Automatic annotation (TrEMBL):
Keywords: Hydrolase. It holds the Pfam family Alpha-amylase. Residues 13-386 form the Glycosyl hydrolase family 13 catalytic domain. SMART domains: Aamy (SM00642). Belongs to the glycosyl hydrolase 13 family. Residues 510-519 have a biased composition (Gly residues). Residues 500-519 are annotated as: Disordered. One of its GO terms (biological process) is oligosaccharide catabolic process. This is Glycoside hydrolase family 13 protein. CDD domains: AmyAc_OligoGlu_TS. One of its GO terms (molecular function) is alpha-amylase activity.
Length: 519
């Protein structure tokens, strides 16, 4: 694989708690992940991104980090993490881990010191008076400690914000990056990347944050070797494209998640607009775009696309409103082939390849996302996209806990998932898993980094050609349209008599036209 592997990579997101449970305690772990590396290799992905695996009280699914240099005991040990990194590399899979620099945990040594000694508070945001900011999870962003001072937490009270005006915070994270680069990781996904630097009246996208990433880029660059470059991927939610692009300057982060695409409704004009905007933002600065349909924070695509309103459904918007599973599945399949054909990198959130729906009927008492409790139940939170994966068998836990007896998974799986297990889908040529496997394999040779050429098409149809000659056609209109000439490589739904039905994407190659290189 090339040094710049990350420019066109397919990256699989592992939410460790819910991926595979190796010791049967009901919670996913490193042993489970290691036992499923063959599955990931066969899926055809280039890298995995793991959500935080550090020791954590789990007030926010591990985004409350108590120690950045160790592994949560429920997940395993540092030695197991090292073994996992080595084994992933043997399978040809790169490893990206999450780093959480905006906030820490109230259980961290630094915060405990700060609580005990007011002179040790400069690593956080302690003030005598709160300033009225609200938490992104709901409620106030300030919590009072027993001696009367208040500390800032943009997320849950268990996640105190770090003070990036303090040089010690910079040194600490530079050292944390080195700690994990020294153990072989191939990159970091940077949590809440635009929030680190703050003033007394603003906390998003302040210019000082770029100095942090310039320094981090130098460190990542030091580690690049024959295995390839080490990569920094930003979680940067900013509506302003010009501000967003600043994070991707050549001496800063390598890539960032495309949240415009993630939140785009299933609408041809809107998708075309977002794709064009994305390309216009990235190509001039030489940064590859990314294409993301889901992650551990948002409604699963098959549920979202099955609704009358397919727009962004963050924060519980439309939770429980009717969703047509067949329509949702058809569109999610079409969207997957579209996303994988676009130039740049693509992300697959675990379970997306199985077509798992959002679990909307979880009992309140099992919900763990702080968004649920902090909104007084008004926001269902994000547990519905975090339900443990079904691997095999006819009833819960569907092989999640490995072959032997195991405790129930930490979130209950729907009975109906028996049809969605990886095992059942491997045997089914029409399954979502078979589609993802076929698409990811073709993508390796024919797609990835580069650019696209739009082709003339009928209303409601998106059609473009890639440098390899592959043509991707998505029909979002109400009636079937003729397929372009050439050999049909793959389609997200049945294609009969040369016609592409509504809500279907096809990949075609070998036809005439500019840029076709043949096969
Ligand atoms: C973004 C993460 O994706 C989300 O899960 C988390 O709750 C917040 N950042 C806070 O760390």
């Amino acid at each position: 694989m090339s040094r710049t592997w990350w420019r066109g990579a397919a990256i699989y997101q592992v939410y460790l708690r819910s991926f595979a449970d190796g010791n049967g305690d009901g919670c996913g772990d490193l042993a489970g992940l290691r036992s499923r590396l063959g599955y990931l290799k066969d899926l055809g992905i280039d890298a995995v991104w793991l959500n935080p695996w550090y020791p954590s009280p789990m007030a926010d699914g591990g985004y409350d980090v108590a120690d950045y240099r160790d592994i949560e005991p429920v997940f395993g040990t540092l030695a197991e993490a090292e073994a996992f990194i080595a084994e992933a590399h043997e399978h040809g899979i790169k490893v990206i881990i999450d780093v959480v620099p905006n906030h820490s945990s109230t259980a961290s040594a630094w915060f405990q010191e700060a609580l005990a000694d007011p002179r040790a508070r400069d690593r956080f945001w302690f003030r005598d008076e709160p300033n009225g900011w609200s938490s992104i999870f709901g409620g106030p962003a300030w919590t009072q400690v027993p001696d009367g001072q208040w500390y800032l937490h943009l997320f849950a009270p268990e996640q105190p914000d770090l003070n990036w005006d303090n040089p010690e915070v910079h040194r600490e994270f530079e050292d944390v990056l080195r700690f994990w680069f020294d153990r072989g990781v191939d990159g970091f996904r940077v949590d809440s990347a635009a929030l680190l630097v703050k003033s007394d009246d603003a906390y998003e996208d302040l210019d000082g944050v770029h100095d942090v990433y310039r320094r981090w880029r130098e460190i990542a660059d030091e580690y690049g070797d024959e295995r390839g470059e080490r990569v920094l991927i930003g979680e940067v939610w900013l509506p302003d494209q010009e501000r967003f692009a600043r994070y991707l300057r050549p001496d800063e982060l390598h890539t960032a998640f495309n949240f415009d695409f993630l939140s785009c409704p299933w609408d041809p004009a809107e998708l075309r607009r977002v794709i064009d905007l994305t390309l216009a933002t990235h190509l001039p600065i030489g940064a590859p775009p990314t294409w993301v349909l889901s992650n551990h924070d948002v409604t699963r695509p098959v549920t979202r696309y099955g609704r009358a309103d397919t727009g962004f459904q963050h924060g519980g918007r439309l939770h429980g409103s009717p969703s047509d599973p067949e329509l949702g599945r058809r569109r999610a399949r079409a969207a997957a082939l579209l996303a994988m054909a676009l130039p740049g990198g693509v992300y697959v959130y675990q379970g997306e390849e199985l077509g798992l729906p959002e679990v909307e009927d979880l009992p309140d008492e099992v919900r763990q996302d702080p968004m649920f409790a902090r909104s007084g139940g008004a926001n269902p939170g994000r547990d519905g996209c975090r339900v443990p994966l079904p691997w095999s068998g006819e009833e819960p836990p569907f092989g999640f806990g490995g072959p032997g007896p195991s405790a129930p998974p930490w979130l209950p799986q729907p009975e109906g998932w028996r049809k969605l297990t990886a095992q059942a889908q491997l045997a089914d040529l029409d399954s979502m898993l078979t589609l993802y496997r076929s698409a990811l394999r073709l993508r390796r040779d024919l797609l990835g980094d580069g650019t696209l050429t739009w082709l003339p098409s009928e209303a409601g149809v998106l059609a473009f050609r890639r440098e390899s000659g592959l043509v991707c056609v998505s029909n979002l209109g109400p009636v079937a349209v003729p397929l372009p000439p050439g050999e049909l490589l793959l389609a997200s739904g049945p294609v009969e008599g040369g016609a592409l039905p509504p809500d279907t994407t096809a990949w075609v190659t070998g036809g005439p036209g500019p840029g076709v290189s043949g096969r």
